[in-house]
Write a structure and sequence with these properties.
With 466 residues, this protein is α/β, with parallel strands linked by helices. The chain has helices spanning 19-28, 46-56, 70-83, 93-97, 99-103, 119-127, 203-209, 218-230, 249-261, 279-287, 302-308, 314-326, 344-356, 374-381, 411-439, 443-451, 454-465, and strands at residues 3-8, 33-38, 60-64, 87-91, 110-112, 137-141, 144-147, 181-184, 188-189, 213-214, 235-240, 267-272, 290-298, 330-337, 361-366. The strands form 3 sheets. Strands 2-1-3-4-5-6-7 form a 7-stranded mixed β-sheet, sandwiched between helices. A 6-stranded parallel β-sheet has the order 8-11-12-13-14-15. Strands 9-10 form a two-stranded antiparallel ribbon. Helix 13 (344-356) links the parallel strand 14 (330-337) and strand 15. Helix 2 (46-56) packs across helix 3, helix 9 (249-261) runs parallel beside helix 10 and helix 15 packs antiparallel against helix 16. The structure holds cobalamin (B12). Cobalamin is lined by residues 11, 14, 16, 19-20, 23-24, 40, 62-64, 66-70, 89, 91-94, 97, 112, 115-117, 120, 186, 198-200, 242-243, 365, 368, 370, 398.
Length: 466
Amino acid sequence: MKNILLIESGARYTLYPPIGLMHLGAVLREKYNVKIKDYSGREIDESKIKEDIQKSEAFVVGLRVLTGTHIPRAIKISEIAKRLGKIVIWGGPHPTILPEQTLQNPYIDAVVIGEGEYTFQKLLEHYDGKKVKLEGVGLKKNGKIKITPASKHFIDLDKLPLPAWDLIEDINRYFPDKRQNVLPLSTTRGCAFKCGFCHNSNKNVRRYLGCYRIANPQRVIEEYNLVKSLIKNKIEILDLGEDLHLVSKDYAKKFCDTLDKNGLNIKWVSAARYQTIDQEIIEMIAKKGCIRILLGIESGSPKIQKMNNKIIELERTIKIAEIIRKNKIFLTNTYIFGHPSESEEELNMTLDYIKKIPADENIIQIYRPMPGTPYFDLCIERKKVQVPNKLEGWSGFGVLGNDINVSDIPTKKLLSIYYKTNLVEQSKFIINQQKYFLRNRMYKKFLKNFINNRFTFKLKEFMHEK
Ligand code: B12
């Protein structure tokens, strides 16, 4: 069996398990010796990378890459791999959206567009000298870039092997606390909705990743048991805060019943839309361990909501938010300030909304143009962003401190409202969170949060990128 090395280029200040690579590794290990390296949460060190690649004796080095801070790191790793004579293949959100431009980089031989479980296998067989039909990939042939059509191979999440948690090195670093660790799980693919700002609305994502799917909740139990058996500390919370977890009442019921049937009494965090939940669901999930839910509101202006493809009915939303809090589920609402074409009057509607809808936490972000989304096209049309003509040009996208004002609100005003509102909201949140830690005698968490809260995190990220 030949060796392959999968690398999570990651971001300097975000340590997160390489879920996408573990999903791939689980399938590929049937035919290859797979190694996974995760450089997230640390500075990249060129000599260490060189050593890792050499030691792996891999014929292919595959990287998972997001738009933004991942890019310069992934280019550096690819350059090192290429110098060592490896075949370099990129996958993940960025090359999925921009396969051609990614391939213009001299250190990248091929890209996988969208889900990789099936198409990557075929690509590896191709590089292994076999004659195969390539689908869902881009590659260079005689110096020319070729993009193949999408694969028709349907990926049934319930038929996939469990993610290869055993292939990651030093698994315990993702679970550092003795008792209070969070296990992130990915049980969905695609999205049932099509929001203007979201990656899931991209045509390549929809075509090459396919429709919305959610795995049978029984797999959550199996994955939890697997990770539990591999780590030395305890898991306290399951994090299902992916793009869209609680998609329907049927699924919510199935999820809760599965936890029950397996006798798993554990806390969990979810993500949904106001449209997909109601009183019955909330009361049910609260009883079965849901402690926090993330819901997007984004804007208080009916015009912007329509543009977002996310209509929020004010009266119903307030009622739902109240029910969530009454059931002691920590409610996080998210908002975007400065949508494309947003006016000051529309932003003021959002500020009013924030005051009306109860929440334990309001996460407010300035709109950040991300490539391939419907809004990105709108920003180009309105001449608000310049499309980078090289892969390197995407390094600052989505990164704090590189904000581009694409709204109709004067920049000074937008930033001042954004920082002022955030200062109030984040302070309220940190105080609430600290109170919660003290109340529950989580002193270590209290101290850690004191040193490492969102303010200091963002400050570090900002200083690093400057
Ligand atoms: C968990 C998560 C986070 C975590 C961890 C980040 C991380 N390392 O992924 C946190 C909270 C930190 C985060 C932050 C951000 N995130 Co985020 N996040 C996610 C989320 C919800 C799940 C990721 C995941 O595990 N997916 C499950 C796995 C199975 O999917 P996958 O990784 O895509 O892998 C599959 C394929 O892509 C492919 N593949 C992947 N890698 C490779 C490699 C090779 C070699 C091959 C062949 C194939 C391949 O095969 C895999 C299996 O089919 C996704 C949404 C999503 N559904 O993916 C957004 C997402 C990745 N995030 C996104 C964004 C925008 C951000 C932020 C910029 C948000 C912000 N405004 O701050 C930051 C940037 C963080 C950073 N600098 O790293 C976008 C990315 C868009 C883009 N163009 O890159 C996504 C897609 C959300 C969205 N719907 O728009 N995020």
